[in-house]
């Protein structure tokens, strides 16, 4: 399989080089006239306009084709065409136009990015180029890092993925270690809030009504308080009934009841000094997520009958809940000098999440509702110096440090005496063999203190006006210390209780990056890069024995090799970006569910070969079309043993990663007669191939696996903007054909098969699954005054 993947990548690479050569041979009309300002796709093409809006963005320029977007992905303001990095982004206009409210919406817009919500807000897996975190233990880093307003959030529950009053969401792919103080070995999601504007006094309100009895309102107020002081206050309130229904309890699931506020103060005492103080709070109080069983056995058949085979109906004795509070306080200071810009970012954030779920999804509980409580408090300080953009040598240098405390409390209760529709469950046999008593109660407490210190440096040598060489390095020192306390026997996490105190280890990690870029002409750049990222080690809360818990997990180490191209053609009416990469992650931290027991291990390595291509075309000024494609061949290069039976999973596809992920879109801006206004129409569709659900191979879940493909989710909207009026109205619909696919699936036969069914030949699959959101539609009105 490795050889075939390499051969395929070679064929694709050679084909791409041939296509590039043909484009280079064709004399672009823009070449003779181009002044260097041509660049990226406009915001009308969400995933095809890779950019990161700076805190104080430069004015966007306009060419005959599409807008030029300024980026700060290298911590300085640059045109996108000059930045040799693979980035996808959504601008503030995209966020409003496409109703980007959560990661579910982001995934629909950016191919190669996947989301798997396994425990609501408290644990959501984000995939970039095959990299993800599937272990919810405290203290374990996420390979896909999340940054909001330059603050690092270490767990999936600690950040707020509600994108109100947001200027940009950028997705950086691959290791990003030399301009980030924190470990980023798989990719980064950067969210930038809209900042206070000097000299602006305005208020904005955005209100929505949707078909699930939803009412959402968000808005901001920006005020100039004095000659040197400006403030911005943003608020959001979302109240929506559930997309799913528990028909046994007649309660909604997957609802949204949240409230948030963000206050910012900007001070500019001199022309070269500014400071921004930010404080935010966000609260959610929702019912639980919707999971159900499909596949073999009488219980899955009974649930199907009770729910009329409706993907968005479940039949369970417990509704569950999700509660979360997140608070943030941050201070950004920028001091501009003739030698460069000195930046300071100080932050503290706190999080408290409370989650309840019913894993067996039965009326008579085998597994009583599990309670998860997660807490986190983090303090961070970063000092960064960015040299002027002019000169033969440009550089960024910084020091980063943080202190984080994470805590988790998980409570589990089991009753294997319960029957499945009057018959003994397979769970009884496993419980008796693994734990002994049929009625057990277990509790896990885990706390971890993480201290990180990292100096970093990246410099670029502008060898000529067209040729540049970048080299960077980060040296990270990470210390983790804590405890892991298992009180009582646990079916999933071990029969023998243990209490490990004094866990302590320090890791020292050196991560470099090298980039060579060349401008063939002002509007066409090619580049090649080698980058390294490390995810530090730690300990697993789910280890079934004290010996395994004390052993812990070794750090991951990712080496990524990439070649790419960014160009515009035909007077900037066609823009394209291309990246081909190979990434190998050694000692990948893997969690696998085997016979109901969670097993944590370091895989020997995982390998990912991929191609990412975006093409954006503007045939006429009002008409915009495009496509974005991600090909990701991710597999376990070496993973043995991968379960308790000693299976060899080497060569098998990585779980949760589609081989092909495609988004196509079109936009048309129609100007109404008599200067009435204009109507912007857009439509997009996303398709993705099915994913593997188990390291041992796709055939482990033959019933569920085919339904993990994204079957063509279509979104559309019409936005009317009247001339010389401060308001707009938008009619929108998402998933208009109401297509369904599985976002999560795992074989829980030990709950939902009876002992006699399990003993029958061919009955081994009863999958616990969750589906994507159904069709939604509504109207949104905004008003600025």
Structure description:
By secondary structure, the chain is mainly beta. The radius of gyration is 26 Å and the shape is globular.
Short overview:
With 785 residues, the protein is mainly β.
* Main structural class: mainly beta
State the major sheet: 22 strands, antiparallel, barrel
Task: Give the rounded overall mean pLDDT.
Answer: 84
Distance between the termini: 60 Å
Helix content: under 10%
How many beta-strand segments? 41
Strand residue content: over 45%
Number of helices: 9
Instruction: From the alpha carbons, calculate the radius of gyration and give it in angstroms.
Output: 26 Å
Overall 3D form: globular
Query: Would you identify the regions where 5 or more consecutive residues have pLDDT less than 50?
Result: 1-65
Question: Which assembly state applies to the chains in this document?
Answer: single chain
Strand and helix map with partners:
Layout: H1 2-25, H2 29-33, E1 61-62, E2 67-68, E3 70-71, E4 78-79, E5 87-91, H3 92-97, H4 103-109, E6 113-117, E7 124-128, E8 144-148, E9 151-153, E10 166-173, E11 187-193, E12 202-210, E13 214-224, E14 229-240, E15 244-246, E16 251-253, E17 256-270, E18 273-287, E19 292-295, H5 298-306, E20 313-314, E21 321-337, E22 340-357, E23 370-386, E24 393-415, E25 419-420, E26 423-424, H6 426-434, E27 439-462, E28 467-487, E29 498-521, E30 524-535, H7 546-551, E31 556-569, E32 574-594, E33 597-620, E34 623-638, E35 660-671, E36 677-688, E37 710-722, E38 727-734, E39 742-747, H8 749-752, H9 755-759, E40 766-771, E41 776-784
